[in-house]
């Protein structure tokens, strides 16, 4: 149960991070002078989302390995 709660929290974080990245990309479309800075911020938020997912699945893989052996 605790793993599910943590998993839900991680997926919620990923959803938020990707939402923020999307807002930066949308803003970049309307602010040409700040475009590259905004796109860089979007990229950083996407990297955070990817990092959360990678960490989550790495932990799950570590727990699953002893069961398979």
Describe this protein's structure:
- The chain has 69 residues and is an all-alpha fold.
- 91% of the residues lie in helices and 0% in strands.
- It is built from 2 helices and no strands.
- The chain has helices spanning 2-30, 35-68.
- Helix 1 (2-30) packs antiparallel against helix 2.
- It is elongated.
- It starts with a helix and ends with a helix.
Topology:
Blueprint lengths: L1 H29 L4 H34 L1
Helix pairs in contact: 1-2
Can I get a quick summary?
This protein has helices spanning 2-30, 35-68. It has 69 residues and is mainly alpha-helical.
**Count of DSSP-assigned helices:** 2
Question: What is the mean pLDDT?
Answer: 89
How many DSSP-defined strands? 0
Q: How much helicity do the residues have?
A: over 70%
- The proportion of strand residues reads under 5%
Primary descriptors:
single chain; 69 residues; mainly alpha; 2 helices
């Amino acid at each position: 149960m605790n793993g599910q709660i943590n998993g839900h929290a991680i997926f919620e974080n990923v959803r938020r991070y990707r939402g923020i990245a999307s807002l930066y990309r949308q803003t970049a479309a309307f602010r040409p002078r700040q475009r590259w800075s905004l796109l860089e911020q979007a990229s950083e938020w996407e990297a955070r989302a990817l990092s959360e997912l990678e960490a989550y699945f790495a932990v799950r893989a570590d727990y699953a390995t002893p069961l398979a052996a």
